[in-house]
């Protein structure tokens, strides 16, 4: 979703993992081994994301709120959906602009939202409970606490739009299984995955052009 804004994906050949071994900067073991290295990576990623702007795809998704109740479930950790104007966003894999306790990552008392002007975690910086501050990111091997709320939303949707995902990363890929049989399902991706579901209408375009085509199809 954010590629057109200038943010690399994590899994493509030229993606973020190419230069950063994933288990060193996105796993609990990597965090325990070298928390400063992990925080430095996400400090870099925050600065990069703040230099980017929402693309037309983000804006078109947000604009749908004029005619529909729209819930966004994203695997992206950036805040481009919110900056585009979307008001109901679930981040499955965490939020880049938030930091938390390394002892209790989901204790609301210790979750802090950073600002564009102050988005760097300094070495040794601590949360309110005295533990080291860590990115509010779901590391590999950790549970995905927002998957159940996301599944409930998908189960109620009349229209399900899937944008720019491989449909092979679980548990997110499993959300399709919660869609009701009567739901209209659209997959927007320039290189769509092969799917064995007759309900899925494929739009083989990027996020912005795909959203434009989709809106022409589902005009209220």
Architecture overview:
The protein has one domain: TPP-binding domain (Rossmann fold, 3-Layer(aba) Sandwich), CATH 3.40.50.1220. It is 27% helix and 16% strand. The protein is built from 7 helices and 8 strands. The chain has a 3-stranded antiparallel sheet, with helices on one face. A 3-stranded parallel sheet has the order 6-7-8, covered by helices on one side. A two-stranded parallel sheet has the order 1-2. Helix 4 runs parallel beside helix 7. It is globular.
Any chance you could write out the topology, listing elements then pairs?
Blueprint: H1 22-25, H2 28-33, H3 35-50, H4 56-63, E1 72-74, H5 80-84, E2 89-91, E3 94-101, E4 112-113, E5 133-137, H6 147-156, E6 159-163, E7 184-188, E8 200-203, H7 207-217
Parallel strand pairs: 1-2, 6-7, 7-8
Antiparallel strand pairs: 3-4, 3-5
Q: Any idea what the shape is?
A: globular
The low-confidence runs, each spanning 5 or more residues with pLDDT under 50, are none
Helix content: 25-40%
Proportion of β residues? Answer: 15-25%
Q: What is the CATH T-level topology?
A: Rossmann fold
Number of helices: 7
The CATH homologous superfamily corresponds to: TPP-binding domain
- Structural domains: how many: 1
CA-CA gap between termini: 24 Å
What's the mean pLDDT score?
91
Structural class: alpha/beta
Keywords:
3-stranded parallel β-sheet; single chain; 16% strand; alpha/beta; 8 strands; 7 helices; Rossmann fold; 3-stranded antiparallel β-sheet; 27% helix; 220 residues
